[in-house]
Amino acid sequence: MGEFAEMLEREFSGLKTKEIYSTKLGDRSIEIIEVENKGSKFLVMFQDEPKKHELHRWSLIITSANNTRTIQGMDKLDTLKMRIKENVRAIIEGM
To answer: What would the DSSP string read from start to end of the chain?
Structure first.
């Protein structure tokens, strides 16, 4: 299981993740995950590529039956994790 899927399970109790696809293209890691929460499912695609000065260029697409969120940015790892948690939490609350 990829690092992103493991982070989701660690941060959100009750989530079940199923890795659909995971690969590394050069320095860029890509994960596509199916997430289940209380009987509802959504898909998550995450891309991350380390850059200079501890920055990571990343994108996150979260798709559920009712909503889709696409966010991207260039942040340090701790800020990146915080932004991901906020957006995943918003999708879960909207289910």
So the answer is: --HHHHHHHHHSTT-EEEEEEEEEETTEEEEEEEEEETTEEEEEEEEEEE-STTEEEEEEEEE-SS-EEEEEEEEEHHHHHHHHHHHHHHHHHT-
The 10s digit of each residue's pLDDT in 71-86 is 999 999 889 888 888 8
The Cα–Cα gap between 2 and 23 comes to 9
- Domain range for residue 36? 3-93
Q: How many structural domains compose the chain? A: 1
User: What is the reported pTM?
Assistant: 0.83
